[in-house]
Design goal:
The chain is built from seven helices and 14 strands. With about 300 residues, it is an alpha+beta fold.
Amino acid sequence: MSDIWCIYSADNQVSRNNLKHGIATSTWGLARGFSGGEPVLGDFVIFGEKVAGGPRGGQWDTSRIDVVLCEVTSSPFAGRAPHWPDEMATGEVKYNPRFGISYIGDLQRVNTRGGPLPPAVSETLRQSGVSGYVKVARDVDIADLMAGMGIGAGAAQTAPVGVGMPSPDERRAGGQGRQTDADLNRATERRAVELATAHMLQHGWTEVIPLGKPYDLVCRRDDGQEKHVEVKGSSGATGSVIYTRNEVAHFRRCPHGADLIVVRDIELTLDDDGAVTATGGELKHVANYRAPDADLKVLTFQGRVTW
């Protein structure tokens, strides 16, 4: 039995962009004015969207809904950086507290009543849509829902259908420069490596060399000791990160011991020409990380990060 944080995504472009971005970056936040407590590790989050007639209509009981199930992977924290597309458009932080989420599975066009969607979850999603706030379904058994997603039957999970970063055109619609996803990613990566380099120097490594591939940093001490570091960064909560096959292999086989450094809450700002500047960030250092199977979703090597 689990607590399920139920979030109905309204049928408009802003909500769709925020939902896609939140799932793609493993981050969710609570809107100002929410007073229903905070999620804890072990809770689940379920997003629902695309109900014909909407939550206020009389068609809910006979409708179908798309759902995405995620797990809460970090305790809530106060984000300082704009993260979602509507935040980036205005430079304002609208959603706090924030917490990490890790994608579990999704289903399209499931019955709102009957089938694998628990009645308590369906009704709580409806209430979320009516109120505009997150609602919590307490002590719910979601075994049938997870089974419907192929979870527990040996099926590896990949990214949900239709979920990804908003396109550059969608970003520009907010009136904030002409950046691309590649620009944002490069700035985020540079800031994460910058903080990781300073962190390793502060912890006794006398030489830190940025490498990039097959790992980000080579760290050395005067006594000849060497350490390799993989660095991941995000403007969100980094509830999970994506590894390449080679990165997973290096974590497990590196003779020097490979460390993982994850930086969350990196602030991205744009000037009038759309140039991206990255500042801030909160760092987590995991020494001798081995990319355990329990943390990985095998097809994509999406690794859970618990803060």
